[in-house]
Amino acid sequence: MEMMRAARLHEIGGAFQIDEVPLPVPGKHDVLVRVEACGIIPNLRNVVTSFPTWYPFLPLPELPAIFGLDAAGRIAAVGEGVNTFKPGERVYVNPGVGCGECRYCRQGEPTRCGDYTFMGYFGFGKNSTSIFRKYPYAGYGEYTVAPVANLVRLPENMPLEHGARLGYLGTAYSAIRKSGLRPGQAILILGATGTLGVGAVLLALAFGAGRVVAAGRDPAALERLVELDPQRVIPVCWGGRSIHEQVRERMGDGVDVMLDTLGAKASAELSVDAMQAVARGGRIVQIGGVAGPIPIDPHPFMCAQLQYIGSLWFTPAEADEMAAMLSSGVVDMSILEPRPYCLEDINEALRDIEACGNGFTNFHISY
User: Is the bond preceding residue 64 a cis peptide, omega within 30 degrees?
Assistant: First the structure.
């Protein structure tokens, strides 16, 4: 039996261990990918330590388990029913898997599936456990197996370590599409200096936003965002005056769209503050999972015709669109600073990303 190395978690809150596990064999409609880069998720330590307590309704894979959300590499083998992808192709593996049977999966919207599951991360439904069992190999292993429908071809001019960042970019891309942002409109990115926020700023500029209000707590990182386009990027640093007051001073009518990228440990008060900067008829899109609840007064929302939209991840079709944008050069990924780690250093990488990570640093496992 052929074997491979994988970083596996054996107990909640514990460290990852490097184990030898059997090399997987792809099913009829699956592909085997040799992983060359896999993103390191800043939230991973929270997931494998606190999610069973914080969010018991979001199941984790049975332990010991291989984690690793954003894998990119080359196809090593394909199942007998796979015709369009060939060994050797460079791909990103979209880790989001639906049940394949519900009406949302059948109409090409797996992110709406009640059992949607992230391979190598966590799930959203009671049947996620069965999906984890079907696809137990994720990005922190030398090889992963995924449904062929989840593959995204990567352009030749994209380094594979950039492919390992597509999870964050795709989340922002899908949210901007849902927001209906039109060229020339103004968008507020809340949490703009984080990993999700930096990608959102890059994409908002590529979508033709007239003004991109970057709100964050790191003044130096905000200045780096301004350097991307000094005419269009407006920095707002929180910590003193309210966010919405600073935005309204510069744009009296407010912004047309707000993307909330704040994570689980952020204060919901920041979200509530920033929402007051949204213009009448504007859209607020939640993609960060800020700790709630978020108080919303229905009457002002009705009168101002505001919309609060939840957006989860992105479909492989959206990833194909985004890959085409990246290939064309309208999104400049060169601003990302590579920070590669060997698989054996996964625990060190998780400590580093919590201690000194920012949205410009591309933390990833490199094989």
Answer: yes
Residue with tokens 């709630």: 292
E-assigned strand segments in 262-315: 278-286, 307-310
Q: Do domains 3-165+336-366 and 168-310 have the same CATH topology?
A: yes
In the structure encoding, which two tokens stand for residue 285, read together?
């899109």
Cα angle 182, 183, 189; round to 5: 75
∠ CA 291-294-298 to the nearest 5 degrees? Answer: 165
pTM of the model: 0.96
* CATH architecture for residues 3-165+336-366: Alpha-Beta Complex (3.90)
pLDDT digits (tens, 9 = 90+) for 316-340: 999 999 999 999 999 989 999 999 9
| Alpha carbon of residue 178 to chain centroid | 15
Delimit the domains of the chain by residue range: 3-165+336-366, 168-310
Say which amino acid occupies 258.
M
Q: What is the distance between the alpha carbons of residues 349 and 364, in angstroms, rounded to a whole number?
A: 8
Q: Which helix (H) or strand (E) holds 237?
A: strand 233-237
